[in-house]
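Hi V.,

You were right to ask for the full record rather than a summary. Here it is.
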Amino acid sequence: MKQSSRLLSTSFLAMCGLFLTVPFNMGGCAGDVGAGLGSIGVGGTNVDLGRVGSGVDKMGQSHTMGARDENVMGESVAMAVTNQYPLNTDPALNKYVTLVGLTIASVTENPDGNYVFGIVQSDKVNAFTGPNGYVMVTTATLKMCQSEAELAGVLAHEISHSVNHDGLNAAKSSLSKSGLTEVATSVGDARYFQSLADAGVDAILIKGYDRSQEIAADKTAIKYMIAAGYDPNAYKTFLTRVKSMQSSNPKGIFSTHPGLDERIKAVSTQIPTGQTGAVLKDRFEKRVSSLN
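Predicted structure:
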C-alpha cells in the first residue's frame, strides 16, 4: 500500500488556513504521505483500508524478514485496529491530525518515510503504531488532550516507535521466543508469514511495547517536539493526566502503554530547563470541536 503523492506543499497548508500560526513548519520533506485511514484524501493522496489485508500474501513474496516487511506488518496492524474500532471519517479532523503528525515526521531521522495517520472511534484512551508509519489514535485520546502540543506529543511518541522499528523488533522477538527463528525458504510457506503477521499484531495491540521501548519513544518524542517548535512540557502534562485517571480505570486508559510513573520521570529529565514552545490550545479546541 504505497502512497503515490509527495508531501503536502507549503501552499497547501496555507490554503488550509493552518499555516498562520506555527508549528506546521514541515521542515525538510516527508514524502509518501497517507491522509488518514479510510479513503480520506489529503493533497491528492487516498488511503483505503478496504484494500488492507493482503499482508500474508505479500509477505510470501519475500525470503528475508527485515525493513521491507514492515509495510505489510503495518497494514496488518491497521486492519486489526479497524476491525476492532470503527474509523472516524470526519475529513477536517483527519486532515488536522495528519498535519500535526506530518509536522513531527518532518523533523525525524526519516522525514521521507511512509506516514499514515488515522482516527478510530473508541472510548478508550490509547494510540497504536504499526510498522512503517501506520499511526492510529482513538477519539477518547483526542478528547483527553487539551492542546495541539499535547496531541503532538502523543503522535511524536508513536512516530518514534516507527522510526525505531519497534514493531518489527517486537515481532522478531516474539517469533524467536516461540522458536520460529528461521525465515521460510519457500515462497509458498504461508504459515510462517501468517505467524509473522500475527506476532506483530499480538506484540503491538495486545501485549504492547515493553517499558524500555516506551521510555525510549518518550525521550525521542521530546526531541521531536522541540525540533518542531512545540512545548514539550505539554506532553509531560498529558502523561500526568493519564496517570491520574488510570488509577480509576486501569484497563481503559493507555492499557498498552506501561510504566507511566517511570516514563513521566524520564520525560521530566529529558526536557531542558526553561524550555518552552507553541501550545496552540485554541486551535486544537477549534479543530476537535466535532467530537464534543
